[in-house]
Amino acid sequence: LSGAMTSVTLRVGDLAGEWDRTGLIPLDLLRDLGAEGRLCAEVPEEYGGWGLSSTHSGAYTAHVGGLCSSLRSVMTSQGMAAWTIQRLGTAEQSAAHLPRLTGGGLAAVGFSEPGAGSDLAAMTTTVRRDGDAVVVDGHKKWVTAAHYADLLVVVGRYEDGAVAVVVPADTPGVRIERITDPLGCRAAGHADVHLDGVRLPADSVLGGHGLPTALLVTTALAYGRMSVAWGCVGILRACLAAATAHAAGREQFGRPLAEHQLVAGHIADLYTAEQVATRVCEHAARCWDEGSPDQVVATVLAKHVSATQAARGAATAVQVLASAGSRDGHAVARAYRDAKLMEIIEGSNELCRLMLAEHALSAPG
Ligand code: FAD
Fold first, then answer.
1. Nearest ligand 1 atom, CA 348
2. Of all atoms in ligand 1, which is nearest to the CA of residue 110?
3. CA angle at residue 91 from 85 to 95, to 5 degrees?
4. Reduced to 3 states, what is the DSSP secondary structure of residue 37?
5. CB 75 within 8 A of CB 61
6. DSSP state of 48
7. What is the pLDDT of residues 232-246, one digit of tens each?
8. Pocket residues for ligand 1 (CB within 6 Å)?
9. Dist. CA 121 → ligand 1 center (Å)
10. Sign of CA dihedral 51, 56, 58, 62
11. What is the ipTM of this complex?
12. Mean pLDDT, range 302-314, rounded to an integer
């Protein structure tokens, strides 16, 4: 794993700021990383993946998250697509699609719609059978990595429930419209996806049958939540490193910033945030690795704690660097914008709090 981390560090180099400014990661680099299995590291070896445990995958995701949140976001989408195929698909569907995702093909997952953000039960995208085919109609919004994707996993209504379908991005009727001005993770390839009479073989429906919407969505999002949570740990580590280096190196009023107690307090807060986020992610990853019944709630907790700590921690890092961190291209400026979005995606702060409250209220005693 440490070799893989070093290799990604070398590939990203000092380019994350430039990718952020141009809004694009070079497609060749994404394909190369994908072909080495680096974008969905938990896919089992039999499908060309690394078969990493949740704990090891988390450490790797945090590493990438510390380098570039846009690349980590692409990785989250790829991993979530692979996870959804593996969890909801048949063995034949896994065998058909997963080797593409470990072989350089890129994927994205579409749930959100203009009228269905937090409330995914309000989705209007439909998947209907038509002879030996299925036809997909709808509009997905803000799909991370869709601009780069060869393959889309799209969630829609089907009979009495919901299904996830695998849609090759070049299928007639698919139109991908890039979002060119996101607040953060600017090179993550966000796009709106329009699906107009998209005709696919019936075996594009993962598992072949509908599921209750909440069950399907929770299953697919679980991986994304873990990945975002670890990505936020990476953001916090990058912010802590930048803030400590700056506070130790710059002098004001005749001594290093770090010797001014209010600045030292900021450093302590950042260190605390990084430690808290790391521990809560480690706990959730252990739950995944042990198949614990606490996995679902531990995942929501990890995502919520890490995202809120990262948003606050990134703001603290900008405060410590002040003008030195206040321009586009600086790691803490990027972190500030990227981290805010982590409080919105994969279950916003409010939705996480509702889920955690529901858990606490239902817990015995
Ligand atoms: P809304 O649902 O309209 O919510 C607005 C505000 O109201 C939020 O603060 C929300 O928390 C709050 N709110 C809503 N309902 C309640 C409630 N019941 N109680 C309390 N508060 C509530 N979608 C995908 O399908 N795939 C992707 O890959 C993807 N990537 C994304 C990447 C980024 C950077 C962003 C910004 C979004 C992405 N999304 C993606 C969409 C994302 O999932 C939604 O933005 C998110 O679910 C929130 O939906 P919304 O933006 O419509 O906000």
1. 11
2. 25
3. 75
4. coil
5. yes
6. T
7. 999 999 999 999 999
8. 77, 109-112, 117-118, 140, 142-144, 182, 185, 190, 341, 344-345, 348, 350-351, 354
9. 13
10. negative
11. 0.99
12. 98
